Each structure stands twice: as C-alpha cells, then as structure tokens.
C-alpha cells in the first residue's frame, strides 16, 4: 500500500502499514526481557557476560527460526564506537547534529522554548525508548540551583496552576539528593517539568529588569535545556504512544506556561491533549463514576481535567475557533476547595479556590463562543441564559473573593491581592467577549445600543449601555491592579496571557462616540473638562502608560498591536484635549487655551470630528481582526 496524503494537508502523511521486525537480541528474546538494543552488546548481556547476537538485517521478511540469525554481532561504524547509551534511541527530529554514537543532550535541541505534542521529538519515535536514569540524573543542576527553581515554582507557577501534588512530591525531592537510586521515571518527569516552568517564570520576571539584556540569552538557553530534558523523559515513558496521568500533567505545563495571545496557541496540539484526557476518561468524575476512593487521586484528576478544559477555552479564544470540549459530554466536578489538615480541620486551599473561579469563567466563555460560532441567530432565550450565566459567575467570584479575604491570615499577602483582583475581573471579561464575539447582532438590547452616524464623518458610532461600559472600566482597573509592576512580577508569565488590547480599543471607541454626541451649541469647554476628568479617560491614560511593558520581549506582532493602541490614544488625546495627556497632568485641555468661539466654530468642530472619525474607523478595522502571526505560527486577535 502506498502512503496516502491527507487532502489539503501535505505535511501530514499516513505511513505504510508493515510488520514490525524483531530487533531484540536472541538472549533477551528467549528470556522475554526488554532488550536495550545497544551495539555491539546490550546492557543485559554485558552485565551477565552472555553472548549478544542480533537478528540479521540483510534479508527482508520475518525471522523463521533461530538458525537464520547471524552468528556474528553487528559491527558499529567506526565513528560511533564510544559513548553509546540508551539515549541514542531518543527521536532526533528536533535534535540536529547528534550522531548515533554520541550522548544526546538537551542543549542540542532546536526549535522554540515551548513544546508541542505533535512535534517530531515526541510523536515520530520509532520503537520504544528505554529509560536511562543515569542520563536523566545528568540533566539536573546542582542542588542549590534546583532548590532555587523549586522555590520559584512554588511561589510563581503552582499558585496559578496547582496541577502537581507538591505535598507528595517535595518529601521525595528532599530524599532524592541523598539517594537517587530509588527515583522513578515519573519523579524525573515531574522534576524536570517543574524546572522548566520555573525557568519560564524566571525569564519573565527578569524581563522587566533593567539588567535583563545581558542575561536574556542565558535564560532562553536554560528554558530550551529543560524543555528538551522533559521531552526526553516523556519519550522514555512512552508518551504519547502510551499515556499516563503524570504525562498529561507534565504536558499541560509544557503547553501552558509560555502560551499567550502574542506567542503561540497550538490548537492541533491542544486538541490532541483533549483527546488523550478523554482517553483516560478524565471527563467522567473520578468519584461518582470511576469510584476512586483516594481523595488525593480524585483531586488531581479533577484539577487536570479542568486545566485542560481551561486551555481548550483559551486556545479557542486566541485562534477564534469554537472549543473542542462539548458541554453535556463531561460530568467531572470542580476540585474541592477545602482540604483536611493534620489536626482534622478543614482549611481553604486558596490556590484551588482561584483555579475554580477560572474554570467557571472558562465554562461561560465556552458558551459565548458556541453561541458566536453557531450558524443560527441567537434567540431571546439564548441572550437571557447568557446574561444569567455571567451574573451567576459574578456572584460566584464575589463569594470566592470573600472566602479568600476571610482567610487572609493564612494566605500570602501578594497572592491574596493578585488572586482577588483577577477573580474580580472574570465577569467583566465575559461582558467584553460578548461585545467582541457577537458584533454581528448589534441591534440586540442589553449589550450595546443602536449604531449612530456622525454628521461629519462616514463612521458609525456605536453607543454602549452604561452597565457595559462600567464593566470595561472595571476590567481595566483590575488589570492595572494585578498587572502592577514590579509588585507582581513573579506572575508576569501569567499576566501576559490576557492582554487588554481589545478593551482599550473598545473604550477609545466609546470615548469618540461620547465626543460626537456632545451638543456643540450648549456645551463648550465645560463638557470637555468634564469628559477629561471622567473615570473612563483616567483609566485609559493609566492603562496605556503603565501596561507598556506587555509590548516588551514578545513577538513583532504583539509590539505592533501595542504600538497601534498608543498611536490611536495619542491621536484621540491630541484632537480632544489639545495634546497627549499623562495621568499626572491636571485637567488641561484644548478648551482651556482657546476661546469658546474658536473651539465651537463649525469648521473647528467638524475638523475634530473628522479626525476622530478616522481614529474610530482604524479601531473598527483592528478591534477584532484575525491576523496570522508568522513568528508565533498562529492566528491572533
């Protein structure tokens, strides 16, 4: 059978079916052992001083008997006589320059600093990769450096994504440095994943440091090193040909920590993760359906499922496609927020509480996206259900915030401030998403009003309801709170994932609509002064000035988007207030330096509205545009 090409996707090919050939040596085959396949002698035969004979590779077809085997061991090429280890069989599609006889090292890995489950390094392996604990041990840094990264993971990564059970892992980690003989492959997978995630947090945290430049290359090299080491450990575990819970936990971290709207969202790879989660039946509740009695196991499976659900939702948002996971096809409950302490009391887990509210946000976002991508026009019942879901989410977020504040004595102050600010913004994000995703239904009441046309430009000015505008302003205020630098720089890796570009553009558009609606004959400089002192104008100025760090150390496309935001804000302020305004400036506007007659003349007013109309049109062209980012390799808003 010839290889078939999948229509429309030339880079994927279905390989020809063929019978696998026996590759183990005769001794290992007779004893039904897994052969390490080393040449000229496998590890088992070498340790027991047995003759190691491999099947002949000169003739096609299956082996017929032991007599058909070559009596002479296969000779290795001259250039590969030394340094042979089991790592030589790790797939090398992303590992250029590694020969069959040299030890594979993580620093040899080519490609980006994030992984993909569809990458050749994991998916195109031929045969099984035998675990080599000595090799994995050589990938680890000194204990002092590892301890630093472990501490960074606990303070930066784990609070946001509590996917590993650190209470079980950390005791094994401490014992490991005294005796590494008992370490399992699963332990190495978790440890290397943690080191990689911590290196990402370190890179992002130092990216706002004035001394970042000289260290950036070393930090990138560290990330690439640990992602390569983790991929090797996963390949040794048979992933993704075989999948276990720890493989999915590690893969989620590898896929999530470096993903953002301006980096990459590999929808195909994330879709594969969803399918593997369904293969393990994580979509069915571990207690009510699987009858798992161990509380920690139940908690870990629930957390893992909902983290993958969250990743599916955020990937759908970034790529502007519907989510893969369908409502009604899963019944896994949210993880428990209260855990039993050593004294038998139930205590609030602040990290799980934060995660659950994000999971709830993902559920509502998925419903919004399903409604937006549906072919039928949403009905009144659909709109009512959507508003009810967002209102319920707001109530749940408010209750969660109160629970966290009630337990403030047991929660780190920085995490308490960060988590409550993020939670408070979740319902507002849904309101903004409704506006951006369902713009094809602008005549529906409740979200935004009917479009109005300026008398001096060809641009339609959409007015929004006061409630919706309030949610946009509140969203930016909360972002300014939890995005404050350097206070929250340890969470910068997560803060980058939601960039409020569309919210800023929407508020700028709303501001232009407010100006166009001013009654020129009645209001003069007082109206401009009042507008300049409004919360909307202040929060826009604060956001553009204080969130500029989001445009640093990212892709060219993201820099272009932030450059556009600054340009449009500058143009708006120049027309309305006479000059670019900073948050520290007092209420100075063009009206304060010009006479009422000059400001309100027909010609001057028409010129202002005409220029603002151009800004408005530019906003409409960019507020929800779908652009292909060549550097990131995906579509972005």
From TrEMBL:
Superkingdom in the source lineage: Eukaryota
Segments of this protein annotated with the region Disordered: 55-96
Zn(2)-C6 fungal-type domain boundaries: 24-54
Listed Basic and acidic residues bias regions: 64-78
Keyword Membrane: no
One example GO MF annotation: DNA-binding transcription factor activity, RNA polymerase II-specific
Gene Ontology terms describing biological process: DNA-templated transcription
Protein known as: Zn(2)-C6 fungal-type domain-containing protein
Organism in which the protein naturally occurs: Ogataea parapolymorpha (strain ATCC 26012 / BCRC 20466 / JCM 22074 / NRRL Y-7560 / DL-1) (Yeast)
């Amino acid at each position: 059978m010839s290889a078939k090409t999948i229509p429309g996707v030339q880079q994927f090919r279905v390989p020809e079916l063929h019978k696998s050939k026996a590759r183990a040596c005769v001794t290992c085959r007779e004893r039904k052992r897994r052969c390490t396949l080393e040449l000229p002698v496998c590890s088992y035969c070498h340790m027991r001083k047995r003759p190691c004979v491999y099947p002949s590779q000169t003739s096609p077809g299956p082996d017929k008997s032991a007599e058909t085997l070559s009596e002479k061991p296969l000779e290795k090429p001259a250039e590969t006589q030394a340094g042979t280890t089991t790592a030589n069989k790790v797939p090398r599609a992303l590992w250029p320059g590694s020969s069959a006889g040299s030890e594979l090292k993580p620093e040899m890995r080519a490609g980006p600093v994030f992984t993909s489950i569809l990458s050749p390094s994991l998916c195109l392996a031929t045969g099984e990769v035998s675990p080599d604990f000595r090799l994995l041990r050589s990938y680890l840094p000194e204990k002092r450096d590892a301890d630093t990264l472990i501490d960074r993971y606990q303070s930066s990564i784990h609070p946001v994504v509590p996917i590993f059970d650190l209470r079980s892992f950390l005791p094994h980690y401490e014992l490991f440095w005294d005796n590494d003989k008992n370490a399992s492959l699963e332990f190495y997978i978790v440890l290397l994943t943690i080191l990689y995630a911590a290196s990402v947090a370190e890179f992002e945290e130092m990216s706002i440091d004035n001394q970042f430049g000289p260290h950036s290359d070393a930090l990138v090299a560290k990330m690439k090193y640990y992602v390569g080491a983790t991929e090797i450990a996963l390949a040794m575990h048979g992933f993704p040909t075989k999948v276990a819970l720890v493989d999915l936990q590690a893969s989620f971290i590898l896929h999530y920590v470096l993903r953002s709207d301006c980096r990459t969202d590999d929808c195909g790879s994330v879709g594969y993760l969803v399918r593997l989660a369904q293969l393990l039946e994580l979509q069915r509740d571990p207690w009510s359906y699987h009858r798992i009695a161990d509380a920690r196991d139940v908690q870990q499976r629930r957390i893992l499922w909902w983290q993958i659900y969250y990743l599916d939702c955020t990937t759908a948002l970034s790529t502007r496609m519907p989510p893969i996971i369908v409502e009604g096809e899963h019944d896994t409950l949210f993880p428990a927020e209260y855990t039993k302490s050593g004294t038998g009391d139930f205590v609030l887990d602040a990290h799980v509480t934060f995660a659950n509210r994000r999971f709830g946000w993902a559920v509502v976002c998925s419903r919004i996206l399903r409604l937006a991508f549906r072919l039928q026009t949403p009905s009144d019942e659909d709109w009512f259900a959507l508003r009810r879901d967002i209102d319920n989410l707001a109530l749940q977020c408010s209750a969660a915030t109160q629970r966290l504040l009630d337990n403030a004595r047991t929660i780190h102050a920085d995490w308490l401030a960060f988590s409550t600010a993020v939670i408070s913004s979740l319902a507002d994000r849904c309101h903004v998403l409704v506006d951006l995703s369902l713009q094809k239904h602008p005549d529906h009441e409740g979200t935004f009003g009917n479009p109005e046309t300026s008398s001096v430009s060809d641009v339609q000015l959409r007015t929004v309801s006061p409630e919706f505008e309030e949610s946009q302003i509140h969203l930016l205020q909360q972002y300014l709170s939890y995005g404050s630098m350097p206070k929250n720089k340890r969470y910068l890796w997560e803060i980058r994932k939601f960039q409020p570009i569309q919210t800023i553009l929407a508020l700028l558009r709303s501001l232009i609509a407010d100006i166009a609606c001013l009654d020129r004959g009645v209001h003069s400089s007082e109206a401009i002064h009042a507008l300049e002192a409004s919360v909307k104008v202040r929060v826009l100025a604060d956001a553009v000035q204080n969130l500029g760090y989001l445009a640093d150390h990212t892709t060219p496309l993201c820099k272009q988007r932030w450059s556009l935001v600054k340009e449009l804000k500058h143009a708006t302020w120049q027309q309305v207030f006479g000059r670019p305004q900073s948050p520290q400036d007092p209420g100075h506007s063009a009206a304060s330096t010009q006479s009422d007659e000059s400001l309100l003349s027909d010609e001057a007013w028409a010129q202002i509205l005409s220029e603002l109309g151009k800004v408005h049109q530019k906003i409409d062209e960019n507020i929800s545009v779908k652009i292909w980012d060549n550097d990131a390799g995906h579509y972005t808003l």
